[in-house]
Specification:
This is DUF4433 domain-containing protein. The chain is an alpha+beta fold. It is built from six helices and 14 strands.
Length: about 220
């Protein structure tokens, strides 16, 4: 098997072998409702363009993930909600996803990349659109600042399809774990939907609890 991602020592708490996608409230649907939709359809829709040149018509839409260590999920949950799904990094890379890069706004490399996206602003087949969605440009933009390096973001261009067996874990508040397990078991028995038999992780758990939950399946 071809190795897709470098190994991380289990004693390195700043590294994670996983990426996570959190749901949030949008289109009058709660974060919980959006999570149920994703899990039922086994698809994360790409609804927005990201990266350099995202304002241009040709810019493709992407799905965002984070490689933030699982004992620090609170940082994302505080901003987005308590529901999501996790995958191993290899799963994302095998589908042409990967970590984003940074070109600080006023650097020569950032300007060069912006110029290339301008030239291709109406040509969705230009190869620059294979790169630009994976390059953010942190900086000050008028009265607003754009600095999100702390999210340790990964992206996938286009909708992201998966099977229930591909999920490494689901992000669900601990007080709902039992009900969620019963819900998925019933969905399977009644042939109403997929059953996610992976571990459940609460985004506010500490490292010991996360590690214990994941080792139930991956000793």
């Amino acid at each position: 098997m071809v190795k897709l991602v470098g190994s991380a020592d289990e004693h390195w708490p700043d590294m994670s072998p996983y990426v996570v996608h959190f749901t949030k409230m949008e289109d009058k649907r709660t974060a919980y409702g959006n999570a149920l939709s994703i899990l039922s359809h086994r698809r994360i829709e790409a609804r927005n363009a990201f990266g350099t040149g995202k304002q241009h018509a040709a810019a493709p839409q992407s799905v965002c993930f984070s490689e933030i260590p699982l004992h620090n999920l609170k940082r994302l949950a505080d901003k987005r909600g308590s529901y999501g799904i996790g995958f191993r990094k290899e799963f994302l890379v095998a589908r042409d996803g990967g970590p984003i890069m940074y070109a600080q706004k006023d650097t020569s490399r950032a300007k060069a990349l912006r110029n290339m996206t301008v030239k291709a602003k109406n040509d969705k087949d230009d190869p620059i659109w294979l790169i630009a969605p994976f390059v953010d440009q942190p900086g000050q933009y008028g009265p607003k600042s754009y600095f999100y390096e702390w999210e340790r973001e990964w992206r996938h261009v286009g909708k992201f399809d998966f099977k229930e067996t591909d999920a490494a874990f689901l992000i669900i508040p601990e007080d709902l774990h039992s009900a969620a397990r019963g819900f998925f078991d019933e969905a399977e028995s009644e042939n109403l939907g997929p059953n996610y038999k992976c571990p459940f992780v609460d985004p506010y758990w500490n490292a010991a609890k996360v590690k214990a939950a994941l080792k139930e399946t991956w000793p």
